[in-house]
Amino acid sequence: SKKAFIFDLDGVIVDTAKYHFLAWQKLAQELGIEFTPEHNEELKGVSRVRSLEIILGLGNLTATDEEKERWLIKKNQDYLSYIENMDEDEILPGVLPVLEYIRSQGHFIALGSASKNARPILEKVNIMPFFDAIVDGNDVTNAKPDPEVFVRAARLLGVTNENSIVFEDSVAGIQAANIAHMTSIGIGDPAILKEAHYHFKDFTFIEPSFIESLLN
Ligand code: B16
Ligand code: MG
User: Fold this and answer.
1) Tens-place pLDDT, residues 57-94
2) Near ion ligand 2, which residues have CB within 5 Å?
3) What pLDDT does residue 22 have?
4) Measured CA distances, 164 to 60, 111, 112, 156, 169 (Å)
5) Mutate which of 10, 25, 26 to test ligand 1's pocket (most atoms within 8 Å of Cβ)?
6) DSSP-assigned letter for residue 42
7) Which of 107, 123, 171, 183 has the fewest Cβ atoms surrounding its Cβ within 10 A?
8) In which residues is Mg(2+) bound (predicted)?
9) Sequence-ordered list of residues with C-beta below 8 angstroms from that of 189, at least 6 positions apart, any chain
């Protein structure tokens, strides 16, 4: 039967974390909060609102809902200016061959991302046509490790969770896939992806034979 291969966006298809970092750092600076690349690690896979709360926590700062709303808008405007010139050169190594192989075998490809900017990013890097379904931060109410984003993607394609395979770089995303009884494939640092069923440093290590081994 047809499988659903569900891809996370940031850290899997593209490295937008570096742009999120620049935009959050700008805001943190204006608020007098020290925000380092190490802090940024904790924001990977985390929603925009939750990210702001974590940053405010770093500075022991409290804020009104109006202030938070204003800062979220500002952060996103800065982020959008940083990603404006993204193009296909920013697709991470090995991703395109894997997408092409999955498609050549007749399986479904979906996006399962926390980002509300996922669609414009897929357009910019010119890979929209690969996706049979897209579920992003605009579509879900529960953030990873809740499996909502992946389960919705599988449902849209009419595929069971057991026939779904998730590529993720965040701990919360791996947990979400596991909770839903999907096959989880961690991409990135092995130390943080211990819970994944399979693990690869990046997509250049994923051979067609590995994808094939998932198809039975
Ligand atoms: P936005 P993913 C996540 O993307 C990022 O890893 C995370 O850092 C970001 O806060 C979140 O998207 C929301 O992004 O502000 O664009 O809505 O890894 O789930 O693809
Ligand atoms: Mg990610």
Assistant:
1) 999 999 999 999 999 999 999 999 999 999 999 999 99
2) 8, 10-11, 45, 169-170
3) 97
4) 41, 12, 12, 12, 17
5) 10
6) T
7) 123
8) 8, 10, 168-169
9) none
